[in-house]
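To the structural biology subgroup,

Please find below the input and predicted structure for 3-oxoacyl-[acyl-carrier-protein] reductase FabG, which we are adding to the shared reference set this quarter. The sequence is reproduced verbatim from the submission form. If anyone notices a discrepancy with their own records, reply to this email rather than editing the shared folder directly, so we keep one authoritative version.
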Amino acid sequence: MQKRFKGRRAIVTGGASGIGLACAMRLAQEGARVAIWDMNADAAKTAAEKLGGLAVPVDITSLEDVGRAADETKKAFGGIDILVASAGITGPTVPVTEFPMNGFRQVFDVNLFGLVHCNKAVLPAMLESGYGRIVNIASIAGKEGNPNASAYSASKAAVIGFTKSLGKELATKNITVNAVTPAAVRTPIFDQLPQSHIDFMLSKIPMGRFGTVEEIAAIVAFAASEESSFITGQVLDASGGRATY
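Predicted structure (tokenized):
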């Protein structure tokens, strides 16, 4: 395997499981030093030990805690080159008329504001070094909307809008900001969903199967590499043909 990330220092949020773990593994395999940011301290430690990386327990909904995690990572690694913002939750899967507003806010606190906190926290180090790659994990739901998943769909649409804006903002700084929009990928997040919703998502994928975490990690690795130097503010689709725009 090529070593595109030799000497690079990466952060992966939600890196202890699912898509985040697959991304962390891919970056590490290609030479990066990886910091696993995750709410689950034990899982983060286990993942980091396997990758020879750094475990940083963090609550991304707290800007103060994210700032502390960024400082800790920069001190340990000497800088920050890559952020893969993968941490997220689904929230309730119910009609809007039944959706608890505290649940709606919680989804936005994690999926949008938590992601914004992480983007914001790594920028000083990237601006200082004059290099950066930010990859925000959105969702096909942010493009098309999924019924009974209004908070999740809206939060991921907001991630796409934020990514486009920040990509333009940093376009002359040698820092690219892109989003990846997976369709359904079988990960522990499926445990938060009813089977009927999982069946619905599968029915919408023309390829007739779920994606794999390795397929998403491959796209993320490209967006996080020097090869993606002329791509920013872009949404890289990984939906098995569900969305072709």
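Summary notes: The chain has a mean pLDDT of 95. The longest strand covers residues 175-182.

Regards,
Lab coordination
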